[in-house]
Queue: 4 jobs
Job 1
Amino acid sequence: MKRFLTALAPAALIALSSVAPATAEKLSLSTLSTYLNSLGTVRADFVQTNDDGSKSSGEVTIKRPGRMRLDYGGDKDALVLVSGGQVAVFDPGSNEPPQRFPLSQTPLSVILKRNVDLNAAKMVVSHREQNGDTIVRAQDPDHPDYGYIDLIFSATPVLKAWVIHDQGGGSTTVQLTKMSLGGSVADRTFNIRAEANRRGTPID
């Protein structure tokens, strides 16, 4: 959990395996931008691999633009909420309010923004094909010091995984399975203040 916080600190989406020929061509940035912009509400299971090799799992809910919820277990377990331009990390071992910082200062902002444009100047650091997948390394062109994100797409395309690289050289890999698209998710699901109040750690 602490590594995830480090990977996001200032400085979805499924693992459906798609077997593709090793000679497959990489998908264009325009195709991938269109795909990401087509995603609205997404639910999936995830497995997170931290820089030290430890693993954790849970459920992720995404409501583009700008909202994400990563549940790491039960009602009082670790939780990451993204909403209102902020990222909040709830630590179950603490009685303090969640740690918060701007979404704009994390690599996740690349895929949660309203209009994803991977063709934007200096956003994409590298763009390659590997074993039938297309891998795009992207960052905020105005703040490369905030870290960067690798987006791994199958040939379909489907976003199979992402890898967040922080400014300290650490990385966190998130792979997701059992994705479902569409449906209604209440905005309260992502409300940081409401969640803090529910857990008895209100935000001042």
Job 2
Amino acid sequence: MLRILTLITGLALMAACTQTQVYEDPEDLGQFKLRVNYAFADKAVQGPVSRDATPQEWTDAIQNAVDIRLGRYQGAQEYDIGISLEGYMLAPPGIPVIYNPKSTAIVLVNVYDVNNKEFLAKGKQFQVLEDTTSGSALKGSGNERTKEEQMSGLALKVADRVEEWLAEEHKDNGWFNTRSPLIQPLEPDEVTQNPA
């Protein structure tokens, strides 16, 4: 029994060491600049054992997290990000060690290229689980965290995952690469005078 408890504690501490931080080093997003940050939660399905949360509470939490993570990029090309919360479960208080549900959220993400007036992605789905701390591993998220803490944690995980995904798309598919101007300026020796 002691070995099992030691293993659980060790795993919880390892998980705590890799928690998502509000301010992490920026990714390489090329010329990305966030123009508008949309969040929608009106149609979100609430899990059967979840704590209650209003659409406005979710909208505020997601927009705040995305602003913090993606609002810091100051590239020369503007993009809109739209995130729709599809479903969630905010863990209620459980029975320590025996029943410790984790909070989760499912979102769909759209990325819109403002200059080219086209979507780079529509309906990309992500599911995130809240981070585990040494306290929540033993006591349970519902006992350790308030509803607001669970929501802000999940919103941060969503913003973090979206940021990582955008970096992957930039690296693999050239999203946010510097665009070539449509009209290249003429070199001085190429300019000719009108003889008239």
Job 3
Amino acid sequence: MTPTPAPSPWRAGHRGDGLRRWLHREALPMICLLALLLVARSSLANHYYVPSGSMEPALAPGDRVVVDMRAYGLRVPFSQLTLWPGDPLAPGDVVVFRSPSDNVRLIKRVVAVAGDRVDLVDGRLAINGMPLARRPGGPEDFGDVQVALNLDDGGGPDLHNVVVPDGQVLVLGDHRGASIDGRYFGFVPAASIYGQARGVFWRSGEGFGWRRL
């Protein structure tokens, strides 16, 4: 009976060296790349899929939106700790945040910031006593942004003499009668808003393009 030869120590060591070289050459760079992508998505940029028509006509169901995560400050990945501040939140900004009521990720428009006094009647805003629409039925004027509204389903719940507290913002949908927004879940902490929607890069039925918000 011929004895079975023992495994060659040289061959085992050779296989181990090859595996280490492969891990160093292929796996380690791949892991680093995935880590960088995760950090980028948490701190720099991301995208958002619009699930409903609450922001029509600016956003349609199925739109894919670029979200700038640096707009309001660069944060430590996966946290709310800000390394350095960005621009202040401004009325007219379209933002992505977690709902204070159920933690679902939402996209809405900031309509008022800390200290603003808000009145909303039949879907039409007045801030600090001044109507935002320059003419009846016209778009609302947020300075750099002119916002067309969808009032096909009415204006939704009214607001009267509501003052936004420090550190908070009020968000509403542009489709005022079909939006679950700050009228239902209250003010949103400014620190919990993690990105500004910059534009739509893909729309169902139209494909790729760019529509600035």
Job 4
Amino acid sequence: MDEIPCEEAEPITVGQELKSARERMGMTLSELAAETRVPMRHLVSIEQSEFSALPGQTYTVGFVRSYARALGLDDIAVINALRAELSSGGHERYEAPLQNYDPTDPARVPSKTLAWTAAAVAALVLAGYLIFRSYALVPTAMPQTPASVATTAPAPTAPNPVATVSDDTSAENVGMTEQAPPPPATLVATPNP
């Protein structure tokens, strides 16, 4: 018996499934783009399974989910098939291009005049601060009195009124008189008889 070699059919991709479902519904790409708000160039990339043309894997999953929902398909099953296709197909994750700036880029380096002006202003500010600090921290000189001038003793305070009681206990002899108190050394207590 002659065996007929089986030709292995190429596996159908998520993009081909979505395209065939869209065509069965009679929907055009422009109608689908208006409904999903996904740009038409991205819808074409999805149908052709050119996922590297899309902005990134997260966007790819979101665009395919919107596409599947607009067609009324099970979006979870479509996303699972998409993730399996992305992992087996070797599609690289999208990486934003690095922006390398040349440090000698004239647009990024300030002019020489600006740099010298800033340095001069900084030097003037520093000099002003140091001058201010040197005058502010110098103690003011106290006026010195000549040695020949003697210091005066403090003036006596106002006398306090003192009540004195004489030996006579009569009311006429008891009175208030103002006298200066005797110095403490001369104050002697005498007992009353």
